[in-house]
Specification:
Layout: E1 5-8, H1 14-28, E2 35-38, E3 41-44, E4 48-53, H2 56-64, E5 76-78, H3 81-105, E6 121-122, E7 124-131, E8 137-140, E9 153-159, E10 162-168, H4 183-192, E11 196-200, E12 204-208, H5 212-215, E13 216-220, E14 235-244, H6 262-268
Parallel strand pairs: 4-5
Antiparallel strand pairs: 1-12, 2-3, 4-7, 6-14, 7-14, 8-13, 9-12, 9-14, 10-11, 10-13
Length: 270
């Protein structure tokens, strides 16, 4: 079975990858664990993270206009010098992979309905830090509705290698008492639905294509044993970069075939 992912190993020159890793390890000492509401409970992320944007204006917008998991982000920083340095190569690689997937995997060699025809441009990054094999994240979809539908993500892994698992989203109608989903049932379904493991070593770029966030879920599985990295030790740094591909703001669940709300193109018209 094909997953909606592409992976490029040894993506950056080794010295560039090491410089970026060292810079982000320094940043990660002040990362926080995000809190979010799940049903009636406030829970804490199992790993630390921080959000990076291009400039101060975008930082202000992110802090006041967009919600992530039901709350505003407080720790938003500007992209670091090394992050800016690798932005161009990541942009080119992601666009090349998107073009290849359209050509080789999509019906008629055409983009998906609601997928933007525009070039993928990295404009922000979630940087996650996983310390040790026990820090993980369960099955989820990345909530990127402010980018519009069919969001594409470039994910760069640095440091300790970890296992990235994906599975197809399948409709369900059963749950535990009280109407809340069951962790046990979720695990059983993950096996029944055919979860697939993808090994993510240091300096690998994973591209999550247009159908990934709406049709699949993904996770970083706990690792009982890890091989220490010579620079990162027991840490994995993951820079998760969504691309700005046309839709400037998500407000209504109505889109044209290019994934834009009706008012967006009208706004650009003379």
């Amino acid at each position: 079975m094909h997953t909606p992912c592409s992976i490029i190993h040894n993506f950056l020159p080794s010295n560039v990858a090491e410089e970026l890793l060292s810079e982000l390890l320094g940043e990660a000492t002040t990362f926080e664990r995000q809190t979010f509401k799940m049903f009636d409970n406030v829970v804490q992320s199992p790993h630390s993270a921080c959000f990076y944007v291009e400039n101060l204006e975008e930082r202000e917008r992110q802090q006041t206009e967009y919600l992530y998991n039901g709350s505003f982000l407080t720790d938003i920083r500007q992209l670091t010098s090394q992050m800016r340095k690798v932005s161009g190569p990541i942009q080119k690689a992601v666009n090349d992979e998107v073009a290849r997937r359209i050509r080789e995997h999509y019906p008629g060699g055409k983009k998906l309905k609601y997928q933007s025809p525009n070039q993928w441009v990295p404009n922000a990054a979630f940087v996650n830090c996983y310390k040790g094999g026990s820090e993980s994240v369960g099955y989820h979809c990345d909530q990127l509705t402010y980018l519009g539908p069919r969001a594409i993500i470039g994910s760069l892994s640095l440091g300790v290698a970890r296992e990235f698992r994906v599975r197809k989203v399948v409709a369900r109608d059963d749950s535990d008492e009280g109407g809340k989903p069951s962790a046990r049932l979720d695990t059983e379904r993950a096996d029944a639905e055919g979860q697939i493991a993808i090994h993510l070593p240091h300096n690998s770029l994973l591209v999550m294509h247009a159908e990934m966030q709406e049709e699949w879920k993904h996770s970083i599985h706990p690792a009982p044993v890890i091989d220490p990295h010579p620079i990162a030790g027991n840490k994995r740094i993951n820079s998760l970069t969504p691309g700005k591909v046309g839709c400037t703001f998500f407000q209504w669940a109505e889109f044209d075939d290019d994934g834009e709300p009706p008012w967006a193109k009208a706004k650009r018209s003379p």
